Each structure stands twice: as C-alpha cells, then as structure tokens.
Amino acid sequence: MRVSKIVNAKSVRHATGELLLIVAGILIALAVSDWNDRKLQREEELSLLGEIQSALTVDLAALELNLQLWTETANQIEALIEVLKSMPSYESSFDQLFGAPYGLRPANLNTAAYESLKSTGLQAVSNPKLRLSIAKVFDQHYESLTHMNDIDTHVTTDVLRPYYLKHFSNLVFLKSATPLDYEAVIQDKYFQNIVEYRLSVITANQIGFYTLAIEDIRATLGLIANELAQ
Questions:
Q1: Is the pTM of this model over 0.85?
Q2: Contact 81, 156 (CB under 8 A)
Q3: Residues 56 and 220: beta-carbon distance below 8 Å
Q4: Alpha-carbon distance 87 to 84, whole Å?
Q5: How far apart are CA 223 and CA 129, in angstroms?
Q6: DSSP strand pairing (168-172 vs 176-179)
Q7: What pLDDT, in 10s, does the model give residues 101-151?
Q8: Which of 67, 89, 70 is nearest to 78 (CA)?
C-alpha cells in the first residue's frame, strides 16, 4: 500500500515536472517569437523613418532656397513700389524690378515616404511625439504649401499675366521685364495695385508658410535623428 502510494506520488511529481517543462518551453517560445516580432517591427520602423528623413532633408534644402529667393523677390518688389511712387526717369536696371512680381517658383514636395508610412499605419512610429511631428509636417504644412502653390498659380496666370503680356516685353519669370511705355506703366494705379497685392501674397504665403514649415521640418528631422541613434 505504502509502496503504491510512493510510486503514485513519484508519478505525479514526474508528470508535474514534465508539464512545467512543457509550459516553460511554450513560454520561452512565445517570448522569443514576441521578441522577434518586436525586432522586425522596430527594423521596419527605422527603415520608414530613414526614408522620411531622406525625403525631408531634400525638401528642406529646396524650401530654404526658395525662401531665400522669395525674400529677395519681395525686396525687389518693395523697391519697385518705391519707383512707382517716386516716378524717376527710366533706367534699364528697372527691368529687373519690373520682372520681380511676375512668375512662379513652386514648392515641389516629396510625399512618397509619408504615403508609405500611412499605408503601414502611423502607429508604426512608436514615439508619440515624433509621430505627431511627422503628421503635422505632411498633413498640415505640406497641404498648406500645396494650396499656396495653387493660389500663386492663380495670381500669376489670372491677374499678372494679362497685364504683363500687354504692357511688357522681354519677359523672364521673376527676373526681368521691359515696359513698352514706361511713363504709362508707372502712372497706372492698377499696376501699382497688382504689384502691392503680389507683395502681400508673397509675404503672407511664400515667406510666411515657408518659414513655419522649415521650422517644423527641422524639428522633425532632429527627432528622427534621435530615434535612429537609439
């Protein structure tokens, strides 16, 4: 009887030991699988962030150059407004000022990397601050810059082009325009109005939106660099 009980107790302990080993094996396998999944997810996240970093770096350089050029254009338009107000005798150097308001300099932005991230899911970016920063750049600033391009196209083609084609020759976008009748042009209040309107659009849109976008793109690139360094 006692022998039987001892045998049964050993069998139970043996079975329990085997069960614990099986459970431990399953838990270890699950832990390894979970670690592998998280490792793959992290690798995918870093790859996506690397693509966004590359795209934003190129776009930042383009936007910074455009901001510089638009600021120079705004300064030239301000000088043109002074000419229209003071009405000095014509000088050939004025052609550069007359050409400043007319033309397009669109912001050609790369959204492919962000679209790839969205197709994967924004939650692929584990850092909430970085995720929000990326979304702000593309969903807010890039949308605003695209809308700004549309406005600028409208202003140039519908407001400026008809006047410039009628009153100027030797047109070079944003660089030069020769008035056909200088005296008539500088005394034309309508021309002064559209020049001042063009300046207000450039100041508010190109310079204003570019400055805000550049600031947030720089901040986002800093966050991405920190994340990739971890």
A1: no
A2: no
A3: yes
A4: 5
A5: 8
A6: antiparallel
A7: 999 998 889 999 999 999 989 999 999 999 999 999 999 999 999 999 998
A8: 70
